[in-house]
Amino acid sequence: MAWKVRVDQDVCIGDAICASLCPDVFEMNDEGKSQPVVEIIEDENLYNCAVEAAEACPVSCIYIEEA
């Protein structure tokens, strides 16, 4: 199975919890907002990490969907 990761840049407040919890999936860009390091996840461990980061996001701007 594969999952697509997206961050809504208009909502992201740049608190970086996602990048600190799951640096293999999220990084901070030059504007101080989160962005995916990879857009498609095929590894279940990375998926679980990304879900944990999404659930920790204070503004719920991370979306993970089946690809």
> Helix/strand/pairing class, anyone?
alpha+beta
**Beta-strand residue fraction:** 25-35%
Instruction: Please count the beta strands (DSSP E, at least 2 residues each).
Output: 5
* Overall form: globular
CATH architecture: 2-Layer Sandwich
**Low-pLDDT segments:** none
- Any idea what the radius of gyration is? 11 Å
> What percent of residues adopt helix (DSSP H or I)?
25-40%
CATH class, anyone?
Answer: Alpha Beta
Number of domains: 1
Count of individual helical segments: 2
Largest sheet: 3 strands, antiparallel
Average pLDDT level: 97
CATH T-level topology: Alpha-Beta Plaits
* Quaternary structure classification: single chain
Task: Name the helix and strand elements from N-terminus to C-terminus, one letter apiece.
Answer: EHEEEHE
Name the strands of the widest sheet in spatial order: 4-1-5
**First CA to last CA: what distance?**
8 Å
Outline the structure in words.
It is built from 2 helices and 5 strands. The protein is globular, with a radius of gyration of 11 Å. It has a single domain (3-66), classed as Alpha-Beta Plaits. It has helices at 17-21, 44-56, and strands at residues 3-7, 26-28, 34-36, 40-41, 62-66. It has a 3-stranded antiparallel β-sheet with strand order 4-1-5, with helices on one face. It is an alpha+beta fold. Its cofactor is [4Fe-4S] cluster. GO terms for molecular function: electron transfer activity; iron ion binding; iron-sulfur cluster binding. Ferredoxins are iron-sulfur proteins that transfer electrons in a wide variety of metabolic reactions. Keywords: Electron transport, Iron, Iron-sulfur, Metal-binding, Transport.
